[in-house]
Amino acid sequence: MKIVMAASECVPFVKVGGLADVVGSLPKALKAKRHDVRIVIPKYRKIDDAKFGLRTLPCRLLIPVGDRYEDVTVKEGTIGQGIPVYFIENDNYFNRPEVYRTQDGDYPDNRERFIFFSRAVLETCKALNFQPDIIHCHDWQTGIIPAYLKTIYNFDGFYCNTATVYTIHNIAYQGMFDADTVALAGFPWAEFTWNKLEYYGKFNFMKAGLIYADVISTVSPSYAQEIQREGEGRGMEGILRSRTNDVSGILNGIDYSEWNPVSDPHIAAHFSMEDSKGKAACKADLQQQCKLPLCPDTLLLGAVSRLDPQKGYDLLGKVLPRILSKNVQVVILGSGDRDLQDIIRSLAGKYPARMSVHFEFNDPLAHKIYAGADAFLMPSRFEPCGLGQMIALAYGAIPIVNKTGGLADTIVNFEEKKGTGNGFVFFPAQPAELRFAIERACKTYRDKKRWSTIMTNAFKSDFSWKIAVNKYARLYKKASEKRSAKGTAYHPPIP
Questions:
Q1: Which residues make beta-bridge pairs with 400?
Q2: Residue 473's closest CA among 35, 166, 22, 138?
Q3: For the chain, what percentages of helix, strand and coil (3-state, to nearest 5) are there?
Q4: Measured between alpha carbons, how far is 316 from 49 in angstroms, rounded to an integer?
Q5: Per residue in 333-356, pLDDT tens?
Q6: Which of 251, 7, 229, 264 is nearest to 118 (CA)?
């Protein structure tokens, strides 16, 4: 198949969250299955042309946004084995310090930025004469692409056989804006009804994707079920239930060529399940870099995450004072909510010999944390999939997780008597439950034989893309068949 990945992030070019990892790795797995896949993302200021060898293509486009037109320059780079990546360049929208927001809040024109990007994706395909069988759209930023194909582009012969797949990476972020977004995006006002684009008087990008896409996916089987329950779908549960036969949960994979302790260039020593001695050197290196005492027998807890209540850092802030009074060290890498940063910074100041925090994006340090940590904290209140726990398993860092979404699908609670399980699972998301899980990890760590068992279980866990890519291939086929059956006629679901 000919596939276009339309997304707002993609590693190694730009990353805010797990979306970037998926968009940067799934195409490689698809290419290995002989699909012709292309990626389209915005050209942000953070993306260095020289570093990635980008070249400007000989096409300039004009994209309508409301009553005016904006220029597009298209640049091209590659990832993997020659997979083309097209960059939509417009200084007015993307030449900014950050991707979506500053610490003071979202960019006020985000709706314009991603209206522009969504139309530019479609016009770029036409300009390059790449006629896709599938456009795979990710998260709210590209939710209106399926709506465009079923409305404005409905009788455009170039897209007559193009089907759409819409993937929800996090249903909490929906792209909700005022009703005049309809005109700004160029949709007919006839589409602004309760069963199409309108959502309680507002325009909702994610709802557009859920209504108009041929099929819908999300990033783990458990999350696909959770978001259809009352109160857990952030208002979208009715639509999702009405399309339940079109909703699939496909667990993300990770790129083991990047996350592999046998070959990782960022870590102090290489190690594996067969020979894990190098992990001790990685732990010492992490302690030294983070100015913590070199204590090989102290349980070292690592965390790499956005600091946000969704990620459970308010829970962690409540339990850390008691945990840090024990024989434990903690290293946290991430940024986000200012109040949570202040709480964590205060604790680090109070326990400088036990806690080190880094409020930044630092990829080499992230690798060192995965390699050097004994256990990995992911106390998320909800987690669509999560990649951190999968990466941690590859490095023998034992995840401590809440039983939700993708965490529930990937981490099995350790049973001491049976020697089964690859992590420590708690539920519900309450401080006492999290504290108990960490204390269980501390107790198990002191028993070297049991800790060796759980580390072996972790190393044996396999979350490569080889299973997920076949499921996506079947999903693409299903989307194409649905598109062929409907032709140009479109009948929205009744939520």
A1: 377, 424
A2: 35
A3: 40, 20, 40
A4: 40
A5: 998 888 999 999 999 999 999 999
A6: 7
Number of H helices, E strands in the chain: 18, 20
- The model carries a pTM of 0.91
What CA–CA distance (Å, rounded) separates 364 from 355? 19
DSSP, residue by residue, 148-164: HHHTTTTT-GGGTT-EE
How far apart CA 452 and CA 372 sit, in angstroms, is 15
Whether the CB-CB separation of 79 and 39 falls below 8 Å is answered with: yes
Longest dimension (CA), the chain: 69
**CATH of the structural domain 2-253+466-486, one choice from 2.170.150.40, 3.40.50.970, 3.40.50.2000, 3.30.230.10:** 3.40.50.2000
Q: Are 375 and 398 in contact (CB under 8 A)?
A: yes
How many Å is the Cα radius of gyration of the chain? 23
Class of domain 278-462: alpha beta
pLDDT tens figures, 417-471: 999 999 999 999 999 999 999 999 999 999 999 999 999 999 999 999 999 999 9
Q: How is the beta sheet containing 424-426 ordered, strand by strand?
A: 355-358, 328-333, 299-304, 375-378, 398-402, 424-426
Question: Do 2-253+466-486 and 278-462 have matching folds?
Answer: yes
The domain locations on the chain are 2-253+466-486, 278-462
Helix residue spans in 42-128 (DSSP H): 49-52, 91-94, 110-127
